[in-house]
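In the current project phase, our protein records have gained a structure token line. A sample record follows, to show the layout:
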Amino acid sequence: MGWDELCLLDALAYLEGFMALVTFVALSSVGSPYGRYSSQFPGLQVPARPAWFLQELPSMVWPLYECARPAAARLGILPNRVLLAMFLIHYVQRTLVFPALIRGGKATPMFSFAAAVLFCTVNGYMQSRYLSQFAVYAEDWVARPCFLTGFALWLIGMVINVHSDHILRNLRKPGETGYKIPRGGLFEYVSAANYLGEIVEWCGFALASWSLQATVFALFTFSALFTRARQHHQWYHEKFEDYPKSRKILIPFVL
């Protein structure tokens, strides 16, 4: 049974890697289907707060479930516990904190919401089961350069992501409507500082875990968020004549 599930986890990883490429091509062609662009996509829509809570929830529930199971064979090892905690911390923030702080927010098209629920369910299962049942690390893995570098990137990325979301939430004063140019933090250098933070975060997680499962997750994150960042960058330039010309899309001074 264990070998069969490990094969399943590997197959899901390859599938997620393939879907990263499909997502990149699809979003490059038709654009992002939620947020400020959701009005371009007809059909049922889910209000912002419940959409974010429900779609992120599976990726919070899976690691909690694994932690509660007495049969979580690998969670007796410190590196496995730390890596699973890194994954869980992100999704506690995205499931419980981020939705509660949303001010207004655009509704999410039903098909986009359903796709996000599916992704978080499958990816949450894949990451949680791999780390709790199959990932093998030496006890001193948490002291090795690979883990320490990855952990530092994960932490820096999460701080950038949370801080950038805070900037975006506070662009408008009470009673104001419409869009404004983000100022402060890494928004002085890129149009999508929040996405840069999340990409750095999951690249760090992939480096710290050194696994196929985490690597394809980082690849999928980049595929989805880079295309959206590029769309944001173009939208800002079209909407604001005074938008800073020196800002890059996602990587300061480079891209």
Helices lie at 2-30, 48-68, 78-101, 110-134, 145-169, 193-209, 212-239.
